[in-house]
Amino acid sequence: MAAEATRSAKPRSRGGRSAGKRSTGRIDVAEVSVSSPERVIDSQSGLHKIDLARFYCRVADWILPGLDNRPVSLLRAPEGIEGEQFFQKHAGRLAIPDIKHLDQSLDPAHPPLMEIDTQKALVGAVQMGAVEFHTWGATTDRIERPDHLVFDLDPDPELPWQRMLDATAFLLDILDELRLDAFLKTSGGKGMHIVVPLGRFHGWERVKAFAHAVSEFACRRQPDRLTATMGPKNRVGKIFIDYLRNQRGASTVAAYSARARPGLPVSVPIHRDELGQLKAASQWTVGNLGERLDTLNSDPWSGYANRQRITASMWRTIGAKPPEED
């Protein structure tokens, strides 16, 4: 049987934390010498590179459990978010302190994939211009067996926020009908992410097909409000349920990762009963997330456990047939 992983109620400790030590022309954070610390990363908030490094130093205990033992991709913006941005999935010649280069066999046609599992590597990535951290839906020890699936709800920008709340609640009701536990986080952009933990029983094709089938099932129930078809024209007046995050090599922004958007919003897990009070997907930012973390009584994803299975009865409920197991 596949090994189970259960999320604890509190973030794991990673040892002592360093808020930052000054040195000539640089500031040391988590044993990383941060160059150009006063470079403005985001003009809207006025936050600097050193602020982002200190942010990740502070949230390391929260973000690292979601990065451990997974390929990570970086969205880098070396000159700030208003400059050039690029997405990096492979290590290449990038020299980040403490970063792991994964086994070449995981992606043989390219340079090694990367993993970040320490505070030093996290801050080291910021030193090299990283703003966002994205992860695969599987761990490196069983890369062909996803341990969760994600529904990324992406709205027509003209829609009111209440429509996003309604769509999220509607999809949660469907998952309840299927008897699947699901967990919520803001995207840090315009939408919401619904994460369904799974035991490592199924391959990528079956997990992707199931996510697609659930999305189509939801769209059949609310065809005027939801779509599972890509493209701006198909999204007019609707919310796109992006199920394509659930294919091999795809990634989703990690919980507690900042986003390279004005204001530096953060993708933040929430309790299900907080959904109705949520004001925006960008409600929490690098500048204000600390207030939330300081006042949380419990981890919103406490009880997260990778042990659920996609069953034959679930396929029947949504009126779909599974592909042959890969």
TrEMBL record:
<feature type="compositionally biased region" description="Basic residues">
    <location>
        <begin position="9"/>
        <end position="24"/>
    </location>
</feature>
<dbReference type="InterPro" id="IPR014145">
    <property type="entry name" value="LigD_pol_dom"/>
</dbReference>
<feature type="region of interest" description="Disordered">
    <location>
        <begin position="1"/>
        <end position="28"/>
    </location>
</feature>
<protein>
    <submittedName>
        <fullName>Bifunctional non-homologous end joining protein LigD</fullName>
    </submittedName>
</protein>
<dbReference type="InterPro" id="IPR033651">
    <property type="entry name" value="PaeLigD_Pol-like"/>
</dbReference>
<dbReference type="InterPro" id="IPR052171">
    <property type="entry name" value="NHEJ_LigD"/>
</dbReference>
<dbReference type="Pfam" id="PF21686">
    <property type="entry name" value="LigD_Prim-Pol"/>
</dbReference>
<feature type="domain" description="DNA ligase D polymerase">
    <location>
        <begin position="49"/>
        <end position="301"/>
    </location>
</feature>
